[in-house]
Amino acid sequence: MKNPPKRPNPIADDGDEFRFCSTCAFSAACLESGYGKPELRELHVLVEHIGPFKEGEHIFREGDEFNAIAAVRGGTVKTYVNDAEGREQVQGFFLPGEVIGLSAISQGRYPCNAVALDTVILCNFSFPTIAALAARLPGLQAQLFRLLSQDIGKAALLAGNYSADERMAAFLISLSRRYAARGFSPTRFQLTMTRTDIANYLRLAAESVSRVFRRFQDDKLIRVDRRDIELLDVKRLEVLARSVLRE
Amino acid sequence: MKNPPKRPNPIADDGDEFRFCSTCAFSAACLESGYGKPELRELHVLVEHIGPFKEGEHIFREGDEFNAIAAVRGGTVKTYVNDAEGREQVQGFFLPGEVIGLSAISQGRYPCNAVALDTVILCNFSFPTIAALAARLPGLQAQLFRLLSQDIGKAALLAGNYSADERMAAFLISLSRRYAARGFSPTRFQLTMTRTDIANYLRLAAESVSRVFRRFQDDKLIRVDRRDIELLDVKRLEVLARSVLRE
DNA sequence: CGCCCCGCTTGACACAGGTCAATGCGAGAT
DNA sequence: ATCTCGCATTGACCTGTGTCAAGCGGGGCG
């Protein structure tokens, strides 16, 4: 089984003036409230590309001071906390175009750790300035509310007491759709996280993740080899994921 | 076992001018950003007391148009959705002083149902006007962000794969603290929800809720008779809840 | 007053998934 | 090439909790 060809990120787009990163979800807000308006130039010059972070390198840690929202430009970020027994609870995986650090808005400090799963590049937006700007741009304020709300919705994926199969199917369908939204293949991609990461995210044992993968493969739902995965029967996966994704 | 004496809500405070409801969490924001400023009068006149809703009466339903944030002034509200199999998934219980409907901010429609568990009175805040006002009052905007963020945190309680005991302990400690914050006894209160409601919230079977109550009572952690509950050993309950509440 | 219904409790049993242990295997280091 | 380490797989077993079924009791209504 060969890896799918690596393709350049079709949305990220570096060299344009103002160092404006069109990957970022915020760009949508900017465009909505009128791309090109003079005020928006202020936002553009705030954008700062940081990284690359190497695999395993931390982007921020729990308790760090929060001063910027970041959009993932390339790579995958995992956020997690350690519970009282020291076990890692993965809160989410963030693909290119997705925004991390929103949940820190209220406290002023990050409530979780963020670590790079591969080579990661970010766009940073200074938060104080964004907040001030949001006061003047209703579209941006609405977009901030929307992003925060989405975070709440995502947490619900983990809330229900679903079976291992349902959780895994929902996880795969979610990845598929998010990759598709960024122009990648929705049926074949690399899992950038370990089995243990997936297990910690889905609240399963790593062994269970392995077993579900095997069962799904025996049932011709997927084909998986190490980190390379292909969704063979998206329809049936969606049926399995239906109750988790609430459709 | 007698019911604890009913005391008047020590925070709710009706008859003052502008129909301003000091129970509401928003009042905190108003006060922060300067109670008495001329702009705030606009907020005050927006407040509308609605209800009472009778036990079992719906406040809003999934898909209803969202136009107002509501703070609970009296009674308890349960929010829930029905999953693909038609089972009720309780998302939260809202006590006096807490805010419902925030998660609807982004979509313009409520993503869940809200029902009164006893006699409920609400304070309504027209959302469009609040949002417009938030643009001018940084304190209010920050408070909105804060409340939204809190919602994310609360969802995390349900996320981890905790044991029935841990979930129940965390639930009781949470209720205790929230009642305490509003001036009620933290060790003795009425459960306004059924065992089934608790089960649907904690993602357990109703029978398990019953069994955990019994075990906790045998261990002298609580004393419970129908809806009347007394926390006998808060310390040990907190130890049990520790990993869930992440302290 | 007595009926019924619904919420609650209790017991017996089954099974999904966790835990423990052993092994496989690929990638990077030497 | 070989060693080694960490991730992954597989099997055997066990336990927590769901499910099913039966029974209890209080409150509302006729």
What's the gist of this structure?
Two copies of one chain form a homodimer. By secondary structure, chain A is an alpha+beta fold.
Detailed description of the structure:
- The structure is a homodimer of 247-residue chains.
- Chain A is α+β, with helices and mostly antiparallel strands.
- Chain A has 2 domains: 17-159, Jelly Rolls (Sandwich); 164-245, Arc Repressor Mutant, subunit A (Orthogonal Bundle), CATH 1.10.10.
- Chain A contains 8 helices and 11 strands.
- The model of chain A is unreliable at 1-20 (pLDDT under 50).
- The A-B interface holds A 81, 83-85, 89, 91, 103, 105-107, 111, 131-132, 134-136, 138, 141-142, 144-146, 148-153, 155-156, 158-161, 203-204, 242-243, 246-247 and B 81, 83-85, 89, 91, 103, 105-107, 111, 131-132, 134-136, 138, 141-142, 144-146, 148-153, 155-156, 158-161, 203-204, 242-243, 246-247.
- Chain A binds a DNA duplex (30 and 30 nucleotides) through helix 7.
- Distance from first to last alpha carbon of chain A: 34 Å
Structural class of chain A: alpha+beta
Helical element count of chain A? Answer: 8
Question: Strand order of the main beta sheet of chain A, please?
Answer: 1-8-3-6
For the CA atoms, what is the radius of gyration of chain A? 19 Å
Q: Using CB atoms under 8 Å apart, which protein chain pair has the greatest interface? A: A-B, 40 and 40 residues
Strand content of chain A: 15-25%
| CATH H-level superfamily title of the largest domain in chain A | Jelly Rolls
CATH architecture name of the largest domain in chain A: Sandwich
How many discrete structural domains of chain A? 2
The biggest sheet of chain A amounts to: 4 strands, antiparallel
Shape of chain A: globular
CATH class division of the largest domain in chain A: Mainly Beta
Q: What is the string of SSEs of chain A from the N terminus onward?
A: HHEEEEEEEEHHHEHHEEH
Quaternary state of the chains = homodimer
| Strand segment tally of chain A | 11
